[in-house]
């Protein structure tokens, strides 16, 4: 299935049908459903009775195999870590797993070792056999590869060879959210297709339809937190642990001079640094917005606490601390010690209120 904000892209894409490209590269914002779109397209290309607009029929032999994850003319290539996350997930597990297992067997005990986050050369080499064989059903063969930025250098070069000497009837669908990380030579071998980012209203409507608690207002807030990406927003809304940590963090920020930096370090030490920095940055933004315009943007629910904190903080001190947080964001993926990072940040925040 495709999402409501993808219908335009779907219809525009059908204009390529007369001369379908050997490789398509979909790119766009994370958390907007790009892989689902590409998967639906793959099903449409394999379907034996597609609708006039290219939609798969959903009940032919090909569609049945596809939805069971065992269409012989379809391959999924993704990092082991992702294949493990969705076992049996609509075709992701079968073929992708067998490719991943191939270079895994010698070590055995797969569960005890860390699963790779890269797409490895063995996985791309396994595609050569797939390309060399004829189609089982006499139709198209489709390879879905994501996220393309996970291709390591050796795998990229191997893929490049395959893309340079296209096999008739094989269609590559590549998906990436970081097109800047792909080899330019890989990009140039593909037809690029930027997938639309949903309009905020459409994204909110969809979130409400998914049954997100708190209706449109909560949908807007979670969507803001997810940077406008609806699938990411839904994941946040459904993650109870996330909600607890978020409530804790906002409570500490709202406490102003009562913020307990050690408790923050202790409670948040296993939380992703970018997530906590994101909450803090939005909170600081709202403090500044409160001081300047009297109206917060991200946390309207915390209006009273924001007003109290904004009145207690010097605007220049706030600006200085803001720069500290921004600098921390630059190294957020390589923190030496998460606990110490959080302790020092929240101590810095508390100091804004300590004007002794
Ligand atoms: Zn079908």
Short description:
This protein is an alpha/beta fold. Helices cover about 55% and strands about 5% of the residues. Zinc ion (ZN) binds next to α3.
Descriptive account of the structure:
It contains 17 helices and five strands. The protein is of the alpha/beta class and 356 residues long. It folds into two domains: 191 residues, P-loop containing nucleotide triphosphate hydrolases (Rossmann fold, 3-Layer(aba) Sandwich); 113 residues, Zinc Finger, Delta Prime, domain 3, CATH 1.20.272. The chain has a five-stranded parallel β-sheet, with helices on both faces. α10 packs across α11. The radius of gyration is 24 Å and the shape is elongated.
Give the CATH superfamily of the largest domain: P-loop containing nucleotide triphosphate hydrolases
Distance between the termini: 60 Å
Radius of gyration: 24 Å
Small-molecule binders here are: zinc ion
In the CATH scheme, the class of the largest domain would be: Alpha Beta
CATH topology term of the largest domain = Rossmann fold
Treating each run of at least 4 consecutive H or I residues as one helix, how many helices?
Answer: 17
Helix residue percentage: 40-55%
On the 0-100 scale, what is the average pLDDT? 87
Give me the CATH architecture of the largest domain, please.
3-Layer(aba) Sandwich
* Helix/strand structural class: alpha/beta
Low-confidence stretches: 87-111
**Strand order across the largest sheet:** 2-3-4-1-5
Our estimate of the beta-strand percent is 5-15%
What gross morphology would you assign? Answer: elongated
* Main sheet record: 5 strands, parallel
Order of SSEs: HEHHEHHHEHEHEHHHHHHHHH
Tally of extended strands? 5
List the domain count as a whole number.
2
């Amino acid at each position: 299935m495709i999402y409501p904000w993808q219908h335009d892209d779907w219809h525009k894409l059908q204009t390529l049908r007369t001369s379908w490209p050997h490789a398509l590269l979909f790119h766009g914002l994370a958390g907007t459903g790009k892989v689902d779109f590409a998967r639906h397209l793959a099903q449409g290309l394999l379907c034996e009775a597609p609708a006039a607009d290219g939609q798969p029929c959903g009940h032919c032999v090909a569609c049945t195999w596809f939805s069971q994850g065992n269409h012989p003319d379809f391959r999924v290539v993704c990092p082991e870590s992702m294949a493990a996350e969705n076992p049996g997930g609509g075709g992701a597990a079968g073929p992708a797993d067998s490719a991943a297992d191939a270079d895994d067997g010698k070590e055995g005990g797969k569960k005890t070792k860390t699963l790779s986050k890269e797409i490895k050369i063995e996985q791309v080499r396994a595609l050569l056999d797939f390309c060399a064989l004829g189609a089982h059903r006499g139709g198209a063969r489709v390879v879905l590869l994501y996220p393309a930025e996970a291709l390591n250098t050796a795998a990229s070069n191997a893929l490049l060879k395959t893309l340079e000497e296209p096999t008739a009837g094989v269609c590559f669908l590549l998906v990436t959210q970081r097109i800047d990380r792909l080899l330019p030579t890989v990009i140039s071998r593909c037809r690029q297709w930027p997938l639309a980012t949903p309009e905020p209203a459409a994204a909110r409507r969809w979130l409400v339809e998914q049954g997100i608690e708190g209706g449109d207002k909560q949908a807007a807030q979670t969507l803001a937190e997810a940077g406008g990406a609806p699938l990411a927003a839904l994941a946040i809304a459904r993650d109870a642990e996330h909600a607890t940590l978020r409530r804790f963090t906002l409570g500490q920020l709202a406490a102003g001079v009562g913020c307990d930096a050690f408790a923050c370090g202790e409670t948040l030490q296993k939380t992703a640094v970018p997530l906590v920095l994101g909450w803090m940055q939005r909170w600081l933004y709202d403090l500044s917005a409160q001081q300047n315009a009297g109206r917060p943007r991200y946390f309207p629910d915390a209006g009273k606490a924001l007003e109290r904190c904004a009145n207690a903080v010097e605007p220049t001190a706030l600006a200085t601390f803001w720069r500290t947080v921004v600098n921390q964001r630059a190294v957020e993926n390589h923190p030496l010690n998460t606990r110490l990072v959080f302790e020092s940040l929240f101590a810095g925040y508390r100091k804004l209120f300590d004007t002794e």
